[in-house]
Amino acid sequence: MTNFSNPLTKCLGIEFPILLAPMAGGPTTPQLVTAVSNAGGLGQFGAAYLNDDEIVTMANQLRASTNKSFGINLFLPQNPEYTDQEFSKATEALTDYFSKFGLKLPKNIIDTTPNLNQQLKAVIESDIKFCSFHLGLPTKKNIQELKEAGIFTAASATSVEEAKQAEEKGVDFIIAQGSEAGGHRGTWIGDWRHSMTGTMSLLAQLKALISTPIIAAGGIMNGAGIAAAIALGAVGVQMGTAFLTCPEAGVNDHYKKALLNTSNDNTIVTRTFSGRPARGLRNYYIEKMENSGSYALPFPLQNILTGPLRKAAAKENNTDYMSMWCGQGASLSRGIPAAKLIETLVDEYNQTLIKVTN
Ligand SMILES: Cc1cc2nc3c(=O)[nH]c(=O)nc-3n(C[C@H](O)[C@H](O)[C@H](O)COP(=O)(O)O)c2cc1C
């Protein structure tokens, strides 16, 4: 049996170097996080849209259901700006879709993003083992305070420059997010289109230039993918899409069905739903919005604006208007319980090692 002992497994006290990607907005339910942690990986919950009280409640709920470590993920504030004219353009593009579901477009938009400092206070109070950041970097002081509280930190990077800055800030781990990855691109330096290096290439580049341990994310769907990432020097993997079809995931059944039935790369990176580039399954809404070059407000305003539309579509099981975030490996989805998935991944990893050493 493989000995997975490395800086990641040791720090987090986990058996396998497999992290459930934190997925804000519903997928990472307490049941999914618990199942992954209890199976020997690290369950993580996406808390970008949760306020401090909700974070404390979630952490308490998790602590009541597992004595294993778990992690949390936060977004950096984006401080978006927009003009009245841009707001009109964005709402105009959505008029037909809103009326289709009998929805009214708002007259203005309120940024409901929770306060990062309050979220961090809740993380420290809740004594969560691991805290990762997406869409930017917190301050050195933030990182220091988390470390002093015994919390390990990580930040996503989609380029060498971002990884260097994360290293400079003193995070314990860097999450190399390759272009295959599902969900929002973490890019915060420059145009996202210039930070679309694939997971394996990005990993090799980072390995050559930085010394902070790296966690690979993007397109990893099986044990061979984990073995490839570890062979390239990663200390672990962060997998999102592979867990979306688990029965424990908080994902609409029709979204799950779409993932289980999708053809090989039917995904696209689009700003049309949230205002930030994110990878998901192509559908009618994305095609229409992309093809017409429709204006989208910056994140999170577009996300807030399209919220009622996505909610109404999910209620009616209408996948034409749902955001179905996933990575390029979606067609390899399995739809099995999380514990079984972890067991299978470890088994496949071991089989891969036997193959390459014989
Ligand atoms: C539905 C979904 C939601 C996501 N939400 C987050 C998030 O809240 N925070 C974060 O750091 N990453 C998020 N990600 C990105 C993952 O951390 C990771 O980069 C990605 O899942 C890896 O690619 P894969 O989906 O091919 O495994 C999300 C991914 C998906 C599929």
What would the keywords be for this entry?
TIM Barrel, 14 helices, eight-stranded parallel beta sheet, alpha/beta, 358 residues, binds flavin mononucleotide
Descriptive notes:
- The protein has an eight-stranded parallel sheet with strand order 1-9-8-6-5-4-3-2. It has a three-stranded antiparallel sheet with strand order 7-11-10, with no helix packed on it.
- It starts with 6 loop residues before the first helix and ends with a helix.
- The chain has 14 helices and eleven strands.
- The chain has a domain at 7-78 and 113-250 and 333-357: Alpha-Beta Barrel (TIM Barrel), CATH 3.20.20.70.
- Helix 3 (52-65) runs parallel beside helix 5 (116-126).
- Helices cover 42% and strands 13% of the residues.
- By secondary structure, it is of the alpha/beta class.
- The chain binds flavin mononucleotide.
- Flavin mononucleotide is lined by residues 21-24, 27, 46, 48, 73, 134, 156, 177, 180-183, 217-220, 238-242, 325-327, 329.
- Flavin mononucleotide binds at residues 21-24, 27, 46, 48, 73, 134, 156, 177, 180-183, 217-220, 238-242, 325-327, 329.
SSE string: HEHEHEHHEHEHEEHEHEHHEEHHH
Average of the residue pLDDT scores: 97
What is the terminal separation in angstroms? 16 Å
The shape, in one word, is globular
Q: Main sheet, how many strands, which sense, barrel?
A: 8 strands, parallel
Give a concise summary:
The protein has 358 residues and is an alpha/beta fold. It is built from 14 helices and eleven strands.
What's the SSE blueprint?
Elements: H1 7-12, E1 18-20, H2 30-38, E2 43-46, H3 52-65, E3 70-75, H4 84-100, H5 116-126, E4 130-134, H6 140-148, E5 152-157, H7 160-169, E6 173-177, E7 183-184, H8 199-209, E8 214-217, H9 223-231, E9 236-239, H10 241-244, H11 253-261, E10 267-270, E11 278-281, H12 284-291, H13 301-315, H14 338-357
Parallel strand pairs: 1-9, 2-3, 3-4, 4-5, 5-6, 6-8, 8-9
Antiparallel strand pairs: 7-11, 10-11
Helix pairs in contact: 2-3, 3-5, 4-13, 9-14
